[in-house]
Write a structure and sequence with these properties.
single chain; 187 residues; mainly beta; Immunoglobulin-like; 6-stranded antiparallel sheet; 14 strands; 2% helix; 50% strand
């Protein structure tokens, strides 16, 4: 998928090394949007060293992209979300946590906020619109969630890149719900 989207590819551009982080798994999901447009979505889990409170922890990388350049349409909204069950699993740090607007920057960088973790930073172009989060679906703590989204109107490629840290009680199953959505117009 990285080749299909160029600098909007699965890791953005200028990816730094993931170092010694353990790859825990990945899921991909394409969505159809009319006859000629498909969006692609990926969720990647990296196992992190235990959190300062001793809880097992993981970093999630969320990536979505859609390209409408070969159509007369536009991308209007791209979103992805992770929701945790109420079994002690908790949402911790996430990035981006604020707005990034194309009228102020042409790219944004995400990374983990844990000082004991190197890597996992990447930069994603921002050709139009705003990257923000859905405040109704984003919450830190037990049974939390994280819902980054891009909104705007663009007649080319749009990528969304985000990361968050999840924690869960030792000895429990790691469960989460992952969702994604893309809205286009004129496709």
């Amino acid at each position: 998928m990285g080749a299909a989207y160029g600098s909007y590819g699965i890791y953005g551009r200028d990816e730094t090394s993931e170092g010694e982080l353990e790859f825990g798994g990945a899921r991909t999901q394409p969505l159809e949007h009319g006859a000629d447009v498909t969006s692609d979505h990926t969720l990647v889990l990296y196992r992190l060293p235990d959190a300062p409170d001793g809880s097992p922890a993981a970093a999630l990388r969320l990536w979505s992209a859609v390209d409408v350049a070969d159509t007369d349409g536009t991308v209007e909204r791209v979103g992805t979300a992770v929701d945790l069950p109420g079994d002690g699993a908790s949402m911790s740090i996430y990035d981006p946590g604020g707005d990034h607007r194309a009228d102020r920057t042409d790219a944004y960088t995400i990374g983990t906020a844990r000082l004991d973790i190197a890597g996992l930073s990447a930069t994603m172009p921002l050709p139009a619109g705003t990257v923000s989060l859905d405040p109704e679906r984003t919450a830190v703590g037990d049974a939390g969630g994280y819902a980054p989204l891009w909104t705007g109107s663009h007649d080319g490629t749009v990528g969304l890149l985000a990361t968050c840290e999840i924690r869960w009680p030792a000895g429990t199953e790691q469960e989460l719900t992952w969702s994604m959505a893309v809205e286009t117009a004129g496709v």
